[in-house]
Amino acid sequence: MSTQTLPGFDLAKVRADFPTLHQEVNGKPLVYFDNAATSQKPQLVIDRLDQYYARENSNVHRGVHTLSQQATDAYEHTRSLVQQMINAQHQHEIIYTKGTTEGINLIAFSFGQKYIKEGDEIIISTMEHHSNIVPWQLLCERTGAKLKVVPIFESGELDFEAYKNMLSEKTKLVSMVYISNSLGTINPMPEIIKLAHERDIPVLVDAAQVVPHMAVDVQELDADFMVFSGHKMFGPTGTGILYGKEKWLNDLPPWMGGGDMIKVVRFDHTTYSDLPHKFEAGTPNIAGAIGLGAGIEYINSIGYDAISAWEHELLAYGTEQLGTIPDIRFVGTAKEKASVISFLIGDIHPYDAGTILDQLGIAIRTGHHCTQPLMHHLQIPGTMRASFAFYNTKEEIDRLVEGIHRVKKMFG
Ligand code: PLP
Asked: Is the CB of residue 99 below 6 angstroms from any atom belonging to ligand 1?
């Protein structure tokens, strides 16, 4: 176990909370560096899911009986934890989704239906995840609107001047990633939003890679919409959040119809529930939401200051140690970066490297990371990506470096 840590941060204790980390894969202790894809879950989250299914299972918002009320309370408690975590003004501005992807699709559908018409423009960037590209393409196909893509520099930083020049009276929405999952770039989101707001253009923030790593204050940021995934922030899969300013969420039409999202249903007309239920049709992922609450409480117990500080340390150490490998090429060298390191080693195909590393018990991600247009722009087939969480250690980074030396011997 690592002795290298920061004052006030008990890495050994943190690691003990994550059962998945303590196993051998292919006969070697697991090194899990695929956190940008999904994070591991602390025992507390696993226990909370178990408790719900074993003792509390019931549907929410529908029953007067005790179990249903308890489930509803626990389900709504998570909503208040999310509200506090991102400092939303109102609890009803927090909408449950099944992930970042669903949140973006919801806005593309709902905002699109009300506000987008032929000739309008929606701005995204070159470094977007497919989930922040395809829903807008579908909307453009439906309406005749146009997708505008902000270019990036070699370093993986956004060309801010180009963004500025792209904004016009035709722009109806900016939808942009805050932290790139492929490059680690932290985009200047406060400035991106400020500039759009000068023209009264709303902004959707893809915060999938932000919320697991650093504190976000939606009021300070002045985001109109912000989306993220529960499974990347130590919660269960199939959970996510759409934050929207009250004025927008009240204004937009619902996107899915069904139970729970209605006030009165007749065959000739229907009226809709108030927020947040207007956007939550059908039986939701109750267990997932309750488990997500446990995940947020876990993050709170560690604190974003400690999380960000340790991950920053890992990023600096990883960049330095990997930088000693001959032929390494870092993909994404922005000044402001999160704990994601994408790289290539000479001509070695990322897939081959990933396969050998897996044999050594090291889980990294290889490929296009759901950012094919970015890879196409960079003219590379993909990258190897090591993404760190606060439970990772410097010793694990040393093992990755050793592993890459093995890969080089085999393929170099
Ligand atoms: N946006 C970014 C930046 C991501 O990293 C991801 C997932 O990797 C997503 C969107 C999509 O998230 P999900 O698959 O949880 O909906």
From this structure: yes
Residues paired with 175 in a beta bridge: 204
**Given a cut of 80, is residue 3 above it in pLDDT?**
no
397/245 Cα distance (integer angstroms): 41
What is the DSSP secondary-structure string of 131-145?
GGTHHHHHHHHHH--
pLDDT in tens, 240-258: 999 999 999 999 999 999 9
Cα–Cα separations (whole angstroms), residue 23 to 27, 232, 253, 408: 9, 20, 48, 26
Q: State how far the Cα of 122 lies from the Cα of 144, in Å rounded to an integer.
A: 11
Its pTM stands at 0.98
Q: Beta 362-363 vs 383-387: how paired, if at all?
A: unpaired
Domains of the chain in sequence order: 11-32+303-410 (3.90.1150.10), 47-300 (3.40.640.10)
Task: Please pick, among 370, 375, 380, 401, the residue that the annotation labels catalytic.
Answer: 370
In the residue annotation, 140 being an active-site residue is answered as no
H-assigned helices in 225-339: 246-251, 286-302, 304-322
Q: Give the residue whose CA is nearest to atom 6 of ligand 1.
A: 208
